[in-house]
Amino acid sequence: MEIQLLFLLTLAISFIYGVHSTVFTIKNNCPYTIAPATLTGSGTSVSTGFELQPQASNSINTPAPWSGRVWARFGCSNDGGSYSCSSGDCGSGQVECNGAGASPPATLVEFTLSDASSTDFYDVSLVDGFNLPVSVVPQGGGCPTTDCPVDINASCPSELAVKDGSGGTVGCKSACVAFNKPEYCCSGDHNTPETCPPTNYSQFFKNLCPKAYSYAYDDKTSTFTCHTGNDYLITFCP
């Protein structure tokens, strides 16, 4: 009897509070293989462990409430039995990141998903730099898209560029990651919007990707909202 009551109570709570899963469909439009990854900030841990060939897609069910980030690695290999990537690597040695985050620079898609009849928040962040173009398209209709559709690596300033073994640019660091100074990281005496305005470096990213976060206090033009219950299409190299 106690088990039946607990089951009915769980159903009632789910009905009242709108417990649901959000589906992230991740698509690879890049001309090479990528390895998507997730990092859970709060909520049920969501693990990814797959590669996507060009034009392939895969879906992840994400129980709400949840907050975290999605990114993609490329230039990956399993040489010597340890999986590693030239861009966006998480250092796990496996296709699964197992709770580890991206090594900057990496283009991050950030979500805060609500579990009730409320609001989801999402953004594309270049605060740690850039490695791949990406777009986020809500699938329920009526909600704004956000993206960074430009290959910033192609025009990255030399002092921010990350090269692979063949000399190709595989990432573009933010000024904070590259120089670790308070005026770029919005830390220390520069930890407010008033004392940490945009810099020439953050403006470089913003000019190429106007909807994406270019530095820590770039909220007004970079955070987007959608009604809870939507699914999201995340496309790399849109």
TrEMBL record:
Key word Signal present = yes
Alphabetically ordered keywords of this record: Disulfide bond, Signal
Coiled-coil ranges (or none):
none
Q: What processes in GO biological process is this protein linked to?
A: defense response
InterPro entries with a match to the protein in the record: Osmotin/thaumatin-like_sf, Thaumatin
Signal peptide location in the record? 1-21
> Which cysteines form disulfides?
C30-C237, C76-C85, C90-C97, C143-C226, C148-C209, C156-C172, C176-C185, C186-C196
Annotated protein name in UniProt:
Thaumatin-like protein
